[in-house]
Specification:
Length: about 350
């Protein structure tokens, strides 16, 4: 932890400012304690990260997911510019393959943000963090889950990177501190997206930009009420065991004519790869996404199945999936007090709002 992060942080118990018990280290604190100057509450600093979140919270499934996934989605692992394109590229959902500079998300942020303060909410395993850090901005990354423990030490200790484990709706960050907020595939997994948007607006300076995404369609299939209640470790073990064994059966059924028995069997198998990534990739689609592009390049079946396992867990285990269409997202954002909002995207909602 860099001591200068203290100018951003507030005690979640009382809103007071912090001091640290390691005043001698002015550059980086690996392990130590934060102490609230007002109420005296203490919070640990572990592996460079101040821990301001409860040990158990609704984001636990994400912590489990990213700890299992590790680095395999990062561009630095895949050699593909998927996340870089989403951040810096041009929007294009018509591309048949992953092209440098074009993206199904395409937010078009500048590659040089020197002098700006950027907040990334929900960095997970650092898929965007490595690119945001490269812009030269003063970067603060906040995640409720222990997914941040998958961030490599090299990234945690970069001079412009500050990482915090905490809940941004609990008042851990001061008002109007940031020029830009990056919130990718997070909003729909919060208990109340409208309340989250109000909390995000508070963190932006006047004229600052919030970039975020959301699932578009309502997600409430027959199995979700059950699967989201399964403990995370058990859910991961079950999915990691069942998906590789049931994918071949589901794939073979998807290739057959849709008679009644086939439709019934596929309905029962819907929790196995609910987005049908395996089928669509094997049929030559999804080449504008990481798994499709890697399959096209390498034909690595085990890696494809690993991505399907990760995606299945991502889809069926979160405690909250509060999707909304473009009109609803725009209304929520305006009601949160943002001056302007624009949305785009067919496969989901991509949005940009200005305070």
């Amino acid at each position: 932890m860099k001591p200068r992060i203290l100018e951003y942080l507030c005690c979640p118990a009382c809103g007071g400012s912090f001091r640290t018990d390691d005043a001698a280290n002015a550059h980086e604190i690996r392990d130590g304690t934060l102490i609230c100057r007002a109420c005296g509450t203490t919070y640990p600093i572990q592996r460079y990260v101040p821990r301001l979140a409860p040990e158990a919270n609704y984001s636990d499934s994400w912590g489990k997911l990213w700890r299992e996934a590790g680095a395999i989605l990062r561009d630095s692992f895949t050699g593909l510019p998927f996340h870089r394109n989403a951040l810096h590229g041009t929007y294009d959902e018509s591309a048949s393959e992953l092209e440098d500079g074009r993206s199904p998300f395409g937010f078009g942020w500048p590659t040089d943000l020197t002098g700006e303060r950027v907040l990334e909410i929900g960095p997970g395993t650092g898929n965007f963090t490595e690119h945001l850090a490269a812009t030269g901005a003063e970067l603060v990354c906040v995640d409720m889950s222990n997914a941040i423990d998958t961030l490599p030490e090299e990234l945690l200790t970069r001079p412009n990177v500050n990482v915090v484990q905490g809940d941004i709706t609990s008042g851990i960050l001061g008002d109007a501190r940031f020029d830009r907020l990056w919130v990718f595939q997070v909003l729909q997994h919060t208990p109340s997206p409208p309340a989250t948007l109000k909390a995000l607006r508070r963190l932006l300076r006047d004229g600052g930009e919030l970039a975020f995404t959301s699932y578009k369609s309502l997600y409430n299939p027959w199995y979700y009420r059950l699967t989201k209640r399964i403990p995370d470790r058990l859910a991961w073990r079950a999915i990691a065991w069942a998906v590789p064994r049931l994918l071949p059966l589901k794939y073979s059924l998807q290739l057959r004519p849709r008679r009644l028995t086939t439709r019934l069997a596929l309905a029962l198998l819907e929790p196995v790869d609910p987005r049908d990534i395996y089928f669509r990739t094997r049929q030559g689609g999804m080449r504008d996404y990481v798994h499709g592009a890697l399959w096209e390049r390498t034909g690595d079946h085990d890696l494809l199945v690993k991505y399907v396992v990760i995606n299945t867990f991502d889809r069926i285990t979160p405690e909250y999936t509060n999707s909304a269409d473009h009109e609803t997202i725009e209304r929520w954002t305006r009601d949160a007090g943002f001056a302007t909002v624009e949305t785009w995207g067919r496969g989901g909602v991509r949005a940009r709002a200005i305070r």
